[in-house]
What does this fold into?
Amino acid sequence: MVYQLQQVSVRYQDHHALQDISCTIEAGQWISVIGQTGAGKSTLVQVLKGLIPLFQGEYLVDDQTVATDAKGKVKVRPEIGYVFQYPEHQLFETTVAKELAFAPKQQRWSASEIKQRITAILPQVGLSEDILELAPFQLSGGQKRRVALASVLMMNPQVLIVDEPTAGLDPVGRTDMLQWLQQWQQQENRTLILVSHHMDDVAQYSDEVLLLHQGRLIGQYDPVTLFIEQSHLLEQSGLVLPESIQLLKLIEQCSGQKIEIDSCREQDIFAKIIPVWHRKEQTFG
Amino acid sequence: MANPVLIGQYVETHSIIHRLDPRTKLISLFIFMLSLIWLNTGISYIVASLFVVMIVGITRIPVVIFWRGLIPLVVILLFTFVYNMLFTEGSIIWSWGWLHITIEGLENGVRLVWRIILLVILAAILTLTTKPLTLAYGLEKLMYPLGKLNVPIEQFSLMIVIAIRFIPTILEELERILLAQKARGYDITTLRLPQRVLAYIPILVPLLFMIVQRAEHLSDAIDARAYGKGKGRTSYRQLQWQSIDYIVMIIAILIALGLLLLNIMKI
It folds into this structure.
């Protein structure tokens, strides 16, 4: 499915949270939404999910306009899964089993279907069935986050929105989470929308990047265009370059040589800069 | 999060009532509310109502906000009216089995409901025109003499301030949970009222858990800043009586005395 926003604005009481946003979300891609705090990242993804009414503009799915009511509300899109920031704070059921069954019950799945799905999902997110009868509050922070993720994956979403999924995780947990998301997105050929402040993660995983600043969309770019060719836009939006790109620029400066890159993934950048660095070392001893 | 204006939430209109010392508002409203309890005659009700309408006008707060504050009380008001109408002795105008409607019952019902509405509007005037923390500070200052009797005024005041500070946090958490439910296909706002009330019950568990957790963190933070170890707390902002405060208090006392007089003289 292709999701499009055309000149969409969102208002919260007396201020515009989003202004005149037009963008396209193609199927099967990893799209990252970046911007400073308060730039409108979470609002944008909530609009896509159908949680927030539009003040102006149009929302299209596969070129069909999504109907809005008088208040600009659209129907919540069931095929889009949404994992909120600090998802563990949004666990509300009394047991993990009930938490996982919440959304399927709304869709009137049978008990056996729910059980089957739970059995399939739990190992995918690295959880065992022993926790099913525990209260979510009894779990560790990491387990809670996995339960929250599993509860969204229960509905087998075509698009998964993850709002700052690594907030509050240690570096190992952060890498684990992102690698798991990438594996899921690629294996299942799904669309993933990541909201993030971490430019390193964005550069590492994204196919496309939406850059927001003060409620406006600066642009929709592929990572190489944004981080290499248009990097001034990041600075203008109050963001910093990924560390690997900073290193690349430093080595370019030291060696006086322009390094051509076609991917912003850390391993690809290192593969390009290490030979240049070695040559420079040999030249100057 | 897009919270609508909450019932009783501070609304800034820069009116003269907003600028009054919180102690003036507390004292004046207390005196005037006391005088409402004595209301008995029709004229006294009209005078009191006109006075309340006048204050509402001075606040420049849209009437719809006061109206919104009354909506949750409709059931209580209705119950009060029906109870008085059916169970007051007097001249019966309609009866069915053991149920009797009397003229005195109808009068009592209307009076009581009217009195409650006036009291609620007055309370709303206080909260709509005074910032919660200013109100708590005013309350602390008014209770200051009790401190001499070893009543822990400072702790009491801190308690109120923390309670007020927690209201938006709780609402934010509640909204998060509701949004998480909506994202998973369950929109509580589309339910009818009785079902909606029932649907809120399971949410109370995680909400209470969150509140207790936050309260624990806060008490640790307060302890970490050595609360209660040194001399009494001082305040950055000091309250000062202005001439307008004295004028307002005198007017409140005069109106209260006037209402008392009207009721004594049965006018």
Notes: DSSP finds ten helices and ten strands in chain A. Chain A has a mean pLDDT of 89. Residues 266-284 of chain A form the longest helix (19 residues). The interface with chain B takes residues 12-13, 46, 49, 51-52, 76, 78, 82, 84, 87, 89-94, 102-103, 106-107, 136-137, 151-152, 155 of chain A (CB under 8 Å).
